[in-house]
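Entry for the shared binder. Reason: the reviewer on the internal report wants the predicted structure included alongside the sequence.
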Amino acid sequence: MSERLAGWTMGEQAVIFQTCSGCGHVQYFHRAFCAACGDSNPREQRASGKGTVYATSLVCRAATPEARAHVPYNIVLVDCAEGFRMMAHGEDGLAIGDSVIAGFKPFAGKLVPFFAKQK
């Protein structure tokens, strides 16, 4: 298996996904194998950050004390251009079907993906 690319979960401003060299399956969460066929060598790639809003939800009650300062905040599900869906933070006013682009912002002491409407 090749060396892991650093993504936002490691503090870098990047969304990393995997593609199976055996069957072509695309998966967002890092795994040592393909979730579709079991191939043991999925290839990591950096996502473009482009996508389309699939769902959006305004969070009005903080899940943790650290998040309390950010309430209310928007959480979105985004269908990314590379073929995977991810959950992330998003700007206010996003609607289903909006074209978006990922950036990164601090939230409760961590760097998180933040989607904004693509202009």
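Summary line for the report: The chain has two domains: 1-46, 50-117.
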